[in-house]
Amino acid sequence: MNVLTDNFSTYGKGFLGTVELTVYASLLALALGFLMASFRVAPVASLRFFGTAWVTVLRNTPLTLLFFAVLLGLPRFGLVLPFQLFAVLALGCYTSAFICEALRSGINTVPRGQGEAARSLGMTFGQTLSAVVLPQAFRSVIAPVGSTLIALAKNSAIAGAFSVTELLGTYRTLSELGYNIIWTFVWIALGYLIITLTISALFHLMEKRWGVAR
Amino acid sequence: MAVDPLIELHDVNKYYGDLHVLKDINLTVGRGEVVVVIGPSGSGKSTLCRTVNRLETIQSGTIRLDGQPLPEEGKALAGLRAEVGMVFQAFNLFAHKTVLQNVSLAQMKVRSRKRPEADRRSRELLERVGLAEHADKLPAQLSGGQQQRVAIARALAMDPKALLFDEPTSALDPEMITEVLEVMQQLAREGMTMVVVTHEMGFARSAANRVVFMDGGRIVEDRTPEDFFSNPESDRAKDFLSKILKH
Predict the structure, then answer these.
(1) Quick check: A40 and A48 in contact, CB under 8 A?
(2) Which domain holds residue A135?
(3) Residue A64 in 3-state DSSP?
(4) Which residue among A43, A120, A132 places its CB closest to the CB of B81?
(5) Residue B43 contacts by C-beta under 8 Å, 6 or more apart in sequence?
(6) CA distance A106 to A142
(7) Which residue of B has its CA nearest to A127?
(8) According to Swiss-Prot or TrEMBL, what is its membrane topology (chain B) (predicted)?
């Protein structure tokens, strides 16, 4: 029980590390996922190909392997960044593939005629997507995007294996100090719960606000 | 024939895979002319209508609007589409926007009008189609006939050179058909260039300058409504008319 009170700052640092990883990687994943989803429905064949390749490669690579590739691979090409930034890159790119597919399935729920009407009025592809299709797609992708971001929060634990400060990694410090391993993990689990429940609450609110307004 | 051609289709062919849906279509629509396209289902009349603003691509032939060939893609194509309004069978009003926003959106995005100016124009047009008091409703709160009239106002808001109607009344109850046709009659009288795919023979008789009869992807007849309805030349048109005018 006193694992937490004795090591509050260790836990706190780990918790903050995970929160930071989750927030930054989520923002990156949302931005990239949005871009890739636009590519995948674009009228230009090369963009569609790029989007499809992006999703295929990232979605089908084990995340740990991707971490190895980014953290050990990129420095060989002269790109040396702080490990936390590398971890955000790996997590964000990996998750963007899933966000992209969620958004694309949302785009497919919008009736074809909506896009046709916008195009027939002279709106460009970008205008049609941003003003007509995506706002309607958005409503049906709130729940799946929420799930994807929750998965991201938990996946961030892998970064700990690459000496990035995050929540799961705190167990190593604490078990070296001889604390009860069960309680160590109970508090870690609680930390993750706080993060994931916050994400679900946020998306629940968004769904209430926008999900059914039709 | 038309003195001042606005829409010209020359030897247009279109295939869906192996299916040849438009066969050597030649059609000229003059400025201010109302051309009604009729024919049995699957005759290619909707497809023909949709090729004019390139919602459907074609495999061969040329389509010109006001002398300019249709651009393939991108900004030039978008610019051209703004000049040709389109009214759909399924209305296709933007479901997440109010009636007023529906009419104003493209004015702001495409014509770069400021919101107050766009909204003023939208209200004017909504007044004209008799829906001024519904400006703040969502499309789902309107009847089909009202939605279609909003769709017409939305198309007019771009100040198009021509309007395409793709079976505008086919999804409507009989009572609502009249209110939509009245708006279209009004536009025809005002000299709007219109291509109308429809099953409304009454509209064809009263508002059309020409009737184009299609069958199996070809234009079979292209004549004045009086000639066409009283004295169809082809057997196919006679057969078609005998079936639909019986009731």
Answers:
(1) yes
(2) 2-210
(3) helix
(4) A120
(5) B214, B215, B216, B217
(6) 9
(7) B109
(8) Peripheral membrane protein
Contact between A14 and A81 (Cβ < 8 Å): no
- Given a cut of 70, whether residue B122 has pLDDT beyond it is yes
Residue corresponding to tokens 């634990």: A157
Condensed to tens digits (0 to 9), the pLDDT of residues A171-203 reads 888 888 888 888 888 989 999 999 999 999 999
Query: How many CB atoms neighbour CB A205 within 10 A?
Result: 12
Give the DSSP letter string of B99-128: HHHHHHHHHHHTS---HHHHHHHHHHHHHH
In this prediction, residue A210 carries a pLDDT of 78
Cα–Cα distance for residue pair B18/A19, rounded to 1 Å = 56
d(CA B21, CA B57): 12
**Cα(A93)–Cα(B228) distance, rounded to whole angstroms?**
64
Question: Is the overall model pTM greater than 0.95, yes or no?
Answer: no
- Alpha-carbon distance B45 to nearest alpha carbon in chain A (angstroms): 18
- Which fold is adopted by the domain B3-92+159-243? Rossmann fold (3.40.50)
Q: Strands B60-65 and B162-166: what pairing? A: unpaired
Question: Facing residues of B34 across strands?
Answer: B194
